[in-house]
Amino acid sequence: MTEVKRTYDATNRQQRARERRRAVVAAAQELFEREGFRATTIAAVARAAGVSAESIYKGFGTKAALAKAVFDFVVAGDDEPVPMAERPEVQAVRAEPDPRRKLALYAEGLARRQHRSAKVQLLIRDGRHVDDTLEGVWQKLLAERLHGMTLLAADLHATGRLRPGLDADEVRDLLWTYISVELYELLVLNRGWPLRRYTTWLTNALAAALCP
Question: Where is the HTH tetR-type domain (predicted)?
Fold first, then answer.
């Protein structure tokens, strides 16, 4: 009985800790997007989340690390401890044998992720010019994007059905360019394209660049 109670208590503590972390990330996202990175203080995030500032420093370390946690949350759409590579939509892309269909599936998922995460990405990108603590976070985002496109390029190249003369490195670099938040910013945020139009354009652009 004691062991069962101890396990139950530990599960409850973990659940409460996860809920507090989720509240902090949600509060930080709202404040970052409304006030900007520099103007948002840890104390303000703590008040909005109903926790102590000390607990935020203990859980995240720095405000820049909190911004990265916000990005990770919004790009995934949840706080489930499942790596992006193991999520069903990524596995569906990997399992699809036709490169055009593979690109269409990827573009669908990317458009949803950009819709959720673009503001945070741009906040980190632009914020590093006035707060150098964000430079490392931005470089990490770029490295993660490059790693993802390296894997997708290898997957596409392995189909043997891409445009003749394209090697995996060029495929990676073309993917890296087309999925950049800068293109989403130009077309959706600046020019007002609906998300469906952006998705269709991205699907067609990738297919034209990579497929025969």
Answer: 18-78
Residues written for the chain: 212
Please state the φ and ψ torsions of residue 129, each to the nearest 5 degrees: -75, -20
Average pLDDT by consecutive 10-residue portion of the chain (212 residues)?
Answer: 60 87 96 95 97 96 96 91 86 95 97 96 96 96 96 96 95 97 98 98 98 96
For domain 1-61, is the CATH number 1.10.10.60?
Answer: yes
Q: Which CATH class is domain 78-210?
A: mainly alpha
Question: What is the per-residue DSSP string for 78-131?
Answer: S--S--GGGSHHHHHHHH---HHHHHHHHHHHHHHHHHHHHHHHHHHHHHTTT-
